[in-house]
Design brief:
Elements lengths: L12 E5 L3 H13 L3 E6 L2 H7 L7 E5 L8 H10 L4 E5 L4 H9 L5 E3 L4 H37 L5 H15 L4 E8 L4 E9 L5 E3 L12 H5 L14 E4 H10 L1 H10 L3 E7 L6 E8 L7 H43 L6 H12 L7 E5 L1 H4 L7 E5 L5 E3 L11 H17 L4 E3 L1 H9 L2 H10 L3 E9 L2 E10 L7 H47 L11 H14 L5 E4 L6 H10 L9 E4 L5 H9 E2 L11 E2 L1 H4 L4 E5 L6 H13 L1 E2 L8 E2 L3 E6 L3 H6 L5 H7 L2 E4 L10 H16 L5 E2 L1 H9 L5 H15 L4 E2 L21 H15 L10 H5 L3 H11 L3
Parallel strand pairs: 1-2, 1-3, 3-4, 4-5, 18-25, 18-26, 19-22, 22-25, 27-28
Antiparallel strand pairs: 6-7, 6-11, 7-8, 9-10, 10-11, 12-13, 12-17, 13-14, 15-16, 16-17, 20-21, 23-24
């Protein structure tokens, strides 16, 4: 049994558009018998368009005199635009109709009534002509695409590429104005190039402002680098006549093209790039009849080549941008190389940023504070030869009085708060910000700056400084530039952190050298912990308390008479603590001049006062991680007691002339021979400082309170002096021992040491005898106080109180508080007694 054969494939598909059904049906039957597939019968142009919505047929047979709102000529024009081949069905053509029909470029005519062989011959001829015409057209398109591709494929410069595109397209479709728009939303950037053909036929670059009109608002100019000025690029197609007039009414650039360049027709083409973007090509001509459908289609065929060239251009630009960015990063790291002076850093950083960012001024704000120097930031200004030099603040800022300095400091604090976030200052917004800040306004006026941006520099997770770039151009920077500066701020901050670490190592090296020097001096003048001698109950109680507190970080206040060995106790506290590996730093508060105590304790910056030729570390910084021994703490002036209180409370200090606090980890051991409670009551010592120091008091007993320790101490000193003087001293004479035990020792252990040293120097035998007998000092009989007039005595007391209070009458530590009377009463008595 044989299988049924499948129907033969149709020769082609035909659509019949004929308003006479009998004629249309007759054609359908004849074509079907000849092997053609008939897509359908349409009586009107509208029905034909519906049938053509799917796959188009090989040929359309169109009645030239089609009835309805649209004639066969109208439908033929529509078919021609879509390159669908068609053959006219006609009867009784006159010359006028024939001329109109030929404009639509049909592939043949069939005259009614039809003969079957004529119909089939006309269809075959139409199919042949269309196939060969399409082949020729495709060949021509390929040649045109190759020519355009050869002209633009290797161009990686935007201006050169736009010139090549304009030149190539002008050979195919005449125009006078080209506009190319490229928007990259992910990068928030927009590129716009415009070229106009001059009288000699050469395309010249057009400033975007001419295509925006003279009344373009500042806000539009400001965002022109981020987004297009209007929506012309979003409406593709050809705009002529009324459509062009409507476009000019609603779109600024179309209106400017008509007014400035005489444009009367506009063709807009979408350009599809590989990356996420929106791009369009716009051609304008003064000829209202320009840009016919064939011309529009010709340009549309070249769009893939244009897109490829633009994609290559963007990739090359991105590679070049990254290369320049890497070069800038390396230059930034080099600018902060170790050992470089701070004054040389700003010009080097500006020179590194210049290839990637336009700038006339660079400021590294706060870097001076990070590196602990005394400056108002470091600035570098651009010179006419393109180099950068350090710009001293004195060339820009003049602060004649205290009010001006206060206003400047306030404006600087406000600006520092703004610099915590990346900020772009261009256009009117930038002018407004500068007008509202004294610092920005002064630099802008003196240097002619019109745009700026700044980003913070983050070190160890917190913003410590900021980099500021500024230009004399009003729209010098874009959001993309701000992002670039943010990216460059990371290696800049890392370089700053490395320099900071280098400075820290340098400081620690200096500190170690000072400690070594200090330690060498201490070795020559101090005792070891084992030299504390005491066997009696008073000293044993002291040893017990010392053992309890030594292992903690608690503040210790050592009290006792002069010469009792308070420093030896302080050293024992340090040696028995976890800080024993570091040198204990000793400061005698009574031995320093009042004007140098603050510098000695807390250090000073270079240039902070006359004679401060270099930065100096204070005793507190030197004792960081160790113990500081403040001997004679009761002699500390009142004004410095407040700063010492801050060091105790906040664990931080501030150098003289410094601008930032410095954290220190210091244990404080203080000593005094004064009764600090009485000093507080007399107003000579701050009560809050006293309570901070008196966390764990250690009272060293006087020598007269521990007579059992006198002979062991004498024996200890005897052996020391024998070794020191090279004498064979072996024992004390009996009368000498009795005198030592009977003497009250007002000078305590120090007096005992000095008495024995003098006797050892004068000794002529191994048995030590005193050079002279010890006699208790006679107690003087107090003289009767002299009687003076009350006014003189009152005046003297008031003057003394004012001197002690530094001239202050009111407030804590004032003269009224010291005298225990009301301030108003004191002022009345001062007026009465003539005290000023």
């Amino acid at each position: 049994m044989s299988l049924p054969s499948s129907p033969a494939e149709p020769l082609a598909t035909v659509l019949i558009v004929e308003d006479e059904f009998i004629v249309a049906d007759d054609l359908r039957r004849r074509l079907t018998r000849a092997g053609y597939a008939v897509l359908g019968l349409a009586a009107t142009a509208a029905e034909a368009r519906q049938l053509l919505a799917g796959a188009p047929p090989a040929v359309v047979l169109v009645d030239i005199f089609l009835k309805g709102p649209e004639s066969g000529l109208d439908l033929a024009g529509w078919l021609h635009e879509r390159q669908i081949p068609f053959v006219f069905l006609s009867a009784n053509l006159n010359d006028e109709v024939l001329a109109a029909a030929q404009v639509t470029q049909p592939l043949g005519f069939l005259n009614k009534p039809f003969r079957e062989k004529d119909v089939l011959a006309a269809l075959e001829l139409a199919r042949y002509r269309h196939a060969h015409g399409e082949e020729a057209r495709l060949r021509q398109q390929r040649e045109m695409q190759v020519a355009v591709n050869d002209a633009i494929a290797r161009l990686h410069n935007r201006d050169e590429l736009c010139q090549a595109i304009a030149t190539q397209l002008d050979r195919l479709v005449p125009f006078t104005l080209l506009s190319l728009r490229i928007g990259l939303p992910e990068e928030q950037t927009f590129y716009w190039a415009a070229l106009h053909k001059n009288a000699t036929g050469v395309f010249e670059k057009v400033a975007p402002l001419r295509l925006l009109g003279p009344d373009a608002p500042d806000a539009l100019l400001q965002r022109l680098t981020e987004q297009p000025p209007d929506e012309v690029g979003e409406q593709t197609g050809t705009f002529t006549g009324a459509a062009f007039d409507e476009l000019c009414r609603t779109q600024r650039t179309a209106h400017a093209a008509r007014e400035a360049f005489g444009a009367r027709a506009l063709a807009v083409f979408p350009v599809l790039l590989k990356r996420h973007s929106f791009a369009s090509l716009q051609l304008a001509s003064p000829d209202p009849a320009a840009f016919a459908p064939e011309q529009y289609a010709t340009v549309a065929l070249l769009l893939p080549q244009l897109a490829l060239a633009l994609d290559n251009l963007l990739v090359c630009e991105e590679i070049e941008t990254r290369r320049r960015q890497k070069v800038a990063e390396l230059a930034l790291v080099s600018a902060f190389r170790n050992g470089r002076e701070l004054e040389a850093i700003a010009p080097a950083v500006a020179q590194a940023l210049q290839p990637v960012l336009p700038l006339d001024l660079l400021t590294l704000h706060g870097v001076d504070r990070v590196l602990a120097t005394v400056q108002d930031g470091i600035h570098a200004s651009r010179q006419p030869d393109g180099s950068f030099r350090l710009l001293p603040a004195a060339e820009v800022v003049h602060l004649p009085d205290a009010a001006a300095r206060l206003a400047w400091q306030q404006a600087m604090l406000e600006l520092e708060a703004q610099m915590q976030q990346p900020t772009l200052n261009v256009g009117e917004a930038g002018e407004t910000r500068r007008a509202h800040n004294l610092v920005a306004r002064r630099y802008g006026e003196r240097l002619g700056l019109r745009s700026s941006m700044y980003v913070p520099l983050t070190v160890q997770g917190r913003p410590v400084a900021a980099v500021v770039v500024a230009s004399r151009a009003p729209y010098a920077y874009t959001a993309r530039d701000l992002r670039l500066l943010q990216e460059l701020s990371r290696p800049l901050a890392l370089a700053l952190e490395n320099l900071l670490a280098f400075e820290r190592i340098k400081t620690l090296g200096q500190q170690l050298a000072l400690e070594n020097t200090y330690l060498a001096e201490e070795i020559r003048t101090t005792y070891n912990i084992g030299e504390i001698i005491g066997t009696g109950p008073a000293m044993q109680a002291l040893f017990s308390s010392l053992g309890l507190v030594a292992g903690t970080d608690a503040t210790v206040l050592i009290t006792g008479e002069t010469g009792t060995g308070k420093e030896l106790v302080a050293r024992a506290v340090h040696e028995l603590s976890a800080r024993a590996s570091r040198t204990m730093i000793k400061v005698n508060c009574a031995a320093l001049p009042p004007h140098l105590i603050e510098s000695e304790l807390f250090g000073h910056e270079k240039g902070s006062f006359t004679g401060a030729t270099d930065k100096r570390l204070g005793k507190f910084e030197l004792a960081d991680g160790s113990t500081i021994f403040l001997d004679e703490i009761g002699e500390l002036p009142l004004e410095l007691q407040a700063k010492l209180l801050r060091a105790l409370q906040e664990r931080e200090i501030e150098r003289v002339g410094g601008r930032r606090p410095i954290a220190v980890d210091v244990r404080i051991v203080a000593a005094t021979n004064r009764d600090l409670k009485q000093e507080v009551a007399a107003g000579r010592f701050r009560s809050d400082l006293y309570y901070r120091l008196n966390v764990f008091p250690l009272a060293v007993p006087p020598l007269r309170a521990r007579p059992e320790d006198i002979l062991p101490l004498a024996t200890h000193f005897l052996h020391r002096f024998a070794k020191k003087l090279g004498k064979p001293l072996t024992s004390l004479a009996a009368d000498t021992a009795q005198q030592l035990l009977a003497y009250p020792w007002p000078g305590n252990v120090r007096e005992l040491e000095h008495v024995l040293e003098r006797a050892a120097i004068m000794a002529r035998s191994p048995t030590l005898s005193l050079a002279e007998a010890l006699a208790p000092a006679a107690t003087p009989t107090p003289a009767a106080p002299s009687v003076r007039p009350f006014a003189d005595a009152a005046r003297e007391v008031i003057v003394a109180a004012l001197d002690q209070a530094a001239g202050r009458v009111r407030g804590v530590g004032g003269a009224a508080e010291l005298l225990g009377i009301k301030p108003t009463t004191l002022e009345a008595r001062m007026k009465k007694l003539g005290v000023r």
